[in-house]
Amino acid sequence: MVPKLPIILINFKTYIQATGDKALALAKICEEVSKQYDVNITVAVQAIDLRRIARECDIPVFAQHVDAITPGSHTGHILPEALVQAGAKGTLINHAEKKIKLLYVMAVVRRMNELKLETCVCAANPQISGAVATLNPTYVAFELPELIGTGISISKAEPQKVEKSVELIMKNGPDVIPLCGAGVSKAEDVTAALNLGAKGVLLASAFTKAEDPKSVLTRMAEAALKA
Amino acid sequence: MVPKLPIILINFKTYIQATGDKALALAKICEEVSKQYDVNITVAVQAIDLRRIARECDIPVFAQHVDAITPGSHTGHILPEALVQAGAKGTLINHAEKKIKLLYVMAVVRRMNELKLETCVCAANPQISGAVATLNPTYVAFELPELIGTGISISKAEPQKVEKSVELIMKNGPDVIPLCGAGVSKAEDVTAALNLGAKGVLLASAFTKAEDPKSVLTRMAEAALKA
Amino acid sequence: MVPKLPIILINFKTYIQATGDKALALAKICEEVSKQYDVNITVAVQAIDLRRIARECDIPVFAQHVDAITPGSHTGHILPEALVQAGAKGTLINHAEKKIKLLYVMAVVRRMNELKLETCVCAANPQISGAVATLNPTYVAFELPELIGTGISISKAEPQKVEKSVELIMKNGPDVIPLCGAGVSKAEDVTAALNLGAKGVLLASAFTKAEDPKSVLTRMAEAALKA
Amino acid sequence: MVPKLPIILINFKTYIQATGDKALALAKICEEVSKQYDVNITVAVQAIDLRRIARECDIPVFAQHVDAITPGSHTGHILPEALVQAGAKGTLINHAEKKIKLLYVMAVVRRMNELKLETCVCAANPQISGAVATLNPTYVAFELPELIGTGISISKAEPQKVEKSVELIMKNGPDVIPLCGAGVSKAEDVTAALNLGAKGVLLASAFTKAEDPKSVLTRMAEAALKA
């Protein structure tokens, strides 16, 4: 089951603007724009908000992390089976703010595959993109940590790194979908990312903290359609 | 706001029998027994199931872990404010299956206090019970990790350790409520724990994996009432 | 065996000025000043430099970290027995730059006691000082992480926190020796710390990165003697 | 500078039989056999024993772990520059007993390259072998964790996994040297590993805990020569 591309993947993080009722409201905006433009807009939400958003919004919903565990005695962990039951479509993993050990990345990818869930592995530089692509996740999202949240788009600041990342992902994991993140804040950043070979973008604050999130997302969806 | 005592605190862990719809069904049983006997039965559920159970059951609901963060860029973490919005009453922390650094225990207790949430810090031996009691959480739950899940009750196997734990908790944190866990599987284990000075019990599989969980819990509630 | 007090405990960290041959040269200066003033000057050095310095210098030598392991399959860890064989007198543990889980602090203290080695547990605020003092290490060193390396002395910037820390250490662990660190850079900081109830100081860059380390240490030793 | 192949890489772990004076004695045996048969025998020793063994034995000496840090405030860490000064030739990294985050593997490989030190990245299954080979370390050592210390040789129990590992290493990192570990306990295990495409073996207890370590190693060196 191949995801619809290009994809706009939005990380709600633990922003207060993207928690609880506000998380639902933002997800509703994503649903609306997604339907209007027929563009894949996926939201990665906090575990606590996941079930509700997955039930009430007709867009794919991701977790932001999952543990490579099977059911049992794992107090305080995120169980892959719980994602399924809550209606999640997949998960982010290895984000710069929640890095995990290499063996864990592989174990998560395997468990997600067993459960027919998608995995987006984040990578902090092109070499890491290439390394994790060998593990065959659904997506690899390349984000330079130093640009996250800055509004300085990686596609502009470091286009050669985006190209290198896409190249290594395609070489090491031909079925893996390359995404581009870090500093994606305007429609033109979406265009630039797609022109450099990415099949989608990963963004966070540019949408969740925007004064007018719908307007920001609408322009990005238009750019995604055109590219 | 002092919690109603004694308390039966039930950890749902990531058992498949205590995930999703089954978690809700178990929590409903807890609610029913709690009302029938007027005993405080609190459930510590997976983050993904928390909001739903807190909304649909009239008993206190805890998380199994929370991160000592403030709102912001913390992908994949559990935000204290999200607990509040989801209707949680508190959280477990430092469980043997999710141990955290000492400074983090303190930071969690502080953040929970700010948000008027309760904290139950788990401790793996009497000395640790005494150490974390100095940080003034709501509860300290003493569980010998080697007895967790065995059905061998700590109150019977190591009564002097339970007494030592209660003693050190009361000495170092006079307002802290001492609980006793590990191997609590029968009504008589509840009685024994309360007789040794604990003000409640922490249990998991004896209820969540029971053939007849309602019957198990009913007998424990009766024992709690009598003690 | 009670350590000689007051103590000046110097953390060599992983400064290049305190690595390899330069570490030995600095330790030799400590030995010289220690003998001249009959003051306990203890150095906490990198594991790789420990054996050589312990063999060649007649002062107590600490490790900067040790693992709570017994001999066996623990690739890449620091074995307590290896400290003994190398001639170490003890170890720092739980430094702000190497924080460990609470249960580990206790396990390290126990293993060190078995081997007749000393333990200096670092604590990042007065409450943590009190919590770790319940575990009966040899020393608790209170260092506000935000002042480490600044040259702003904790005894001047936050004297009431030093007093609170000393008070909680003495209350919860009457045999524990309270030390004071963070920003100790001049003789007067040593005097201030001792006047606030500390029995010694923990310092790092003020000595290891000084233009004239011997002169800095000499003045501190004089201040320690007078206090 | 290409390492001499095949290589017998011996991990001393934290065995009491391979600590302190006994570590030196074992390393002396390695030196003797290495010279007699002109085979590369490299030892990975505890940080505390490293300098002494590197000074007193004329064989390559590895650390068992190193941190991806530069000189500075990193109490309790292993500084790459300290390895150089102590005479180390390289380091193991990411051993099953000391797993690290993916980004750290890359950072260690880079820092080691800057300092002209070798890196042997351990991998717990063929896919991980392939992933870490993209990062261009000197060696990738494939060890199934469940066979470590069992004496059941991976080359016999799971030859197809060894072949797959070698294949993925050569595909993703043509300059990387593939090693094979886990259960290597006899001369014939060395032969089998080399026949499956590995350029050397990684072993531990079969040598360090042997009644007659010299005899064990001599037979392995003969097998390495013949293969």
How does this structure look, described?
The structure is a homotetramer of 227-residue chains. Chain A is α/β, with parallel strands linked by helices and 227 residues long. Chain A has a single domain (7-226), classed as Alpha-Beta Barrel (TIM Barrel). Chain A is built from 10 helices and 8 strands. Chain A has an 8-stranded parallel β-barrel with strand order 1-2-3-4-5-6-7-8, surrounded by 7 helices. In chain A, helix 1 (21-37) runs parallel beside helix 10 and helix 8 (187-195) packs parallel to helix 10 (213-226). The relative contact order of chain A is 0.16. The model of chain A has no long low-confidence stretch (mean pLDDT 94). The A-B interface holds A 11, 13-16, 19-21, 44, 46-52, 63-65, 69, 71-79, 81-83, 85-86, 92, 95-98, 148-149, 204-205 and B 11, 13-16, 19-21, 44, 46-52, 63-65, 69, 71-79, 81-83, 85-86, 92, 95-98, 148-149, 204-205.
CATH architecture of chain A, by name, is Alpha-Beta Barrel
Q: Round the mean pLDDT of chain A to the nearest integer and report it.
A: 94
User: How are strands sequenced across the largest beta sheet of chain A?
Assistant: 1-2-3-4-5-6-7-8
Uncertain residue segments of chain A: none
The overall strand count of chain A is 8
SSE string of chain A = EHEHEHEHEHEHHEHEHH
Could you say how many structural domains of chain A there are in total? Answer: 1
Secondary-structure-based class of chain A equals: alpha/beta
Ends apart, CA distance between termini of chain A: 23 Å
Shape of chain A: globular
CATH superfamily of chain A: Aldolase class I
Largest interface: A-B, 43 and 43 residues
> Radius of gyration of chain A in whole Å, from Cα?
16 Å
Oligomer: homotetramer
Overall helicity of chain A: 40-55%
Approximately what portion of the residues of chain A adopt beta-strand conformation?
15-25%
* Major sheet description of chain A: 8 strands, parallel, barrel
